[in-house]
Design a protein that fits this description.
Layout lengths: L11 H4 L17 E6 L9 H15 L3 E6 L12 H11 L3 E4 L5 H8 L6 E5 L3 H4 L6 E6 L1 H15 L4 E6 L4 H20 L9 E6 L13 H10 L4 E4 L5 H11 L5 E3 L16 E5 L2 H13 L6 E4 L14 E5 L5 H18 L13 E2 L5 E3 L7 H6 L28
């Protein structure tokens, strides 16, 4: 987190050294609606940050008068002296009326800085302060239901693995990353059993956490080394949970040497481009439709801060104008495997829409990694239980009352 609010604001144009443009052309004109996007990584990372940057470009195309200003790579490694309050002050000075902070890493600081600018709307991506009513009135949250995309990724991996060993390169441990890892595992188990006819208890699923959303030399584990280690240990499908592309790059290098290995990148629709032949597909966020709606509402004065957990458009999960979450098939899938995934996705769609016979994987019996009960036989998880991966989440009156999230029983790797 970047909690440095004990000092007076400084002249931001000097501190940022021109990182956010302050030229006369950058100041909002009468016919413009200026919105700021704060990225935790580079805007061309082929992952999380690029997906948000591309959404800003989508808004500029779809919403008349809308124009984005962005700051990329706001993190302790790339910009150790730059704080969120400095970035926001500069964006507001340019005329921004809406600022999107696109990481859970910014959640606490966004809540603090939003109170300094009550006439500016803030939206933190992946946070949940608005869910609990502890956010200022001008702060909302948005997240996509990537759980579905990760279930599809797990299914694809289970359909392809020849060794019965799937490796997951995870970022840091928090409720979001825990529930997404669990979603991959549930999708893999279901498809290994129901489509491959294999005993799901024999499926090995290992997660290794690197310690952050991307590699910070000397601070995190190196995701290239983690990926190589997994492949050396017989894991023949690597699934990425981090913002960057090391898993598919390493798998592509091994495949070029003759190894039968595959990979599933994350976050960004074009993730398979790193190594198309061995890519099984990519679950990705499509922030454009939600951002366009948000900008329109703020521009028209109709936005009311809320917590929004947006799902796929089940009519077409890859519709660029309607679906918050999608999955693009990769060249590494056979036609038969694609047809099986089509069937699996149809089942998820039916379950999500409450149709009889639909598929819901967050149904008991399910235990947590330490053996404690998560869901009883036939019990369907609530949104809060999934969000926090904790059985008692619905009874809590504040997030501090919720027990720490855990991986599900059967997953190898740390929960804390």
């Amino acid at each position: 987190m970047f909690k440095k609010f004990g000092v007076l604001f400084v002249l931001v144009a000097v501190v940022l050294g021109g990182v956010v443009s302050t030229s006369p052309r950058a100041i909002a004109q009468d016919d413009e609606f200026l919105f700021g996007v704060v990225l935790v990584g580079p805007k061309d990372d082929h992952g999380w940050s690029q997906a948000h940057y591309d959404a800003g470009l989508y808004v500029q195309e779809k919403v008349p008068g809308a124009r984005m200003i962005e700051l990329e790579s706001l993190n302790s490694a790339d910009r150790p002296e730059t704080t969120l309050d400095q970035v926001v002050e500069d964006m507001v000075a340019q005329g921004a009326k809406l600022i999107l902070t696109t990481s859970a890493d910014f959640e606490v600081d966004t809540t603090v800085v939003a109170e300094f600018y009550p006439d500016v709307t803030f939206v933190n991506i992946s946070g949940d302060d608005a869910l609990w009513g502890i956010a200022p009135d001008n702060l909302g949250n948005i997240m996509g239901k990537m759980e579905y995309g990760k279930m599809i990724a797990g299914c694809a991996a289970a359909l392809k693995t020849q060794t019965g060993k799937i490796g997951y390169v995870g970022p840091l441990i928090d409720p979001e990353t825990t529930r997404l890892t669990n979603s991959v595992y549930l999708g893999a188990r279901y498809c290994y059993e129901n489509y491959r006819g294999m005993d799901p208890n024999t499926l090995e699923f290992q997660v290794t956490w690197i310690g952050f959303w991307f590699n910070i030399p000397g601070v995190t584990l190196d995701p290239t080394e983690v990926s190589n280690s997994m492949l050396d240990s017989g894991y023949d499908v690597l699934i990425s949970g981090i913002d960057t592309t090391e898993a598919i790059v390493v798998a592509g290098q091994r495949a070029a040497e003759g190894a039968a290995v595959w990979a599933i990148p994350y976050d960004y629709k074009g993730g398979c481009e790193e190594s198309p032949a061995i890519c099984l597909g990519v679950p990705y966020f499509n922030w454009g439709p939600a951002y366009a709606e948000l900008v329109t509402q703020v521009k028209e004065g109709t936005y009311e801060a809320s917590w929004d957990w947006n799902g796929p458009d089940w009519a077409n999960i890859n519709d660029p104008d309607t679906s918050a979450v999608g999955f693009v098939y990769g060249d590494g899938l056979t036609d038969e495997e694609k047809a099986t995934l089509d069937e699996f996705i149809a089942g998820l769609a039916a379950g999500a829409q409450g149709e009889e016979g639909g598929l819901n994987l967050f149904v008991g019996p399910l235990n947590l990694q330490d053996g404690t009960l998560f869901l009883e036989e036939g019990e369907v998880a609530t949104e809060k239980q999934i969000w926090y991966m904790a059985r008692g989440a619905d009874e809590a009156t504040t997030p501090d009352e919720i027990t720490p999230p855990q991986l599900l029983e059967g997953i190898q790797g740390a929960s804390q």
